[in-house]
Design brief:
The chain is α/β, with parallel strands linked by helices. Helix content is 44%, strand content 21%.
């Protein structure tokens, strides 16, 4: 299993379980995110705390999740970025576009606060 999906009360937590978010698992992750959105899920927390590498296909999956949540008037939060992944997000200037939390717990708190505001 490449990732774990937990449907919580007001959002879905998706945890990537692999060290690399790359061309091997990003397409499957993207499909799963599209399915979640198609099933009415508007709020997604993507936890990357186990991933210490991300390539362009991984970034694409992250951006798909962000767009799906935005289009559904929901919230997307990214959490647990390891240093190399955080650098990639920063260099790509996506840190100004994405909601990023240091840990999954912080992400859950950020998610709940963001949902309350909506």
């Amino acid at each position: 299993m490449d990732f774990k999906i937990d449907k919580l009360d007001d959002f879905t937590l998706v945890q990537v379980l692999k060290e690399k978010l790359d061309t091997h698992i990003a397409p499957t992750l993207k499909s799963e995110l599209v399915l979640l959105s198609g099933n009415g899920e508007r709020n997604i927390l993507l936890d990357l705390s186990k991933s210490n590498y991300c390539d362009s296909s991984g970034l694409s999956a992250i951006l798909v999740a962000n767009r799906l949540c935005k289009n559904a008037d929901g919230v997307f939060v990214l959490s647990g970025l390891q240093p190399a992944v955080e650098r990639l997000i920063s260099v790509s200037q996506l840190d100004s576009v994405l909601n990023i939390a240091p840990t999954a717990d912080d992400g859950i708190e950020m998610m709940r606060k963001s949902i309350e505001k909506k």
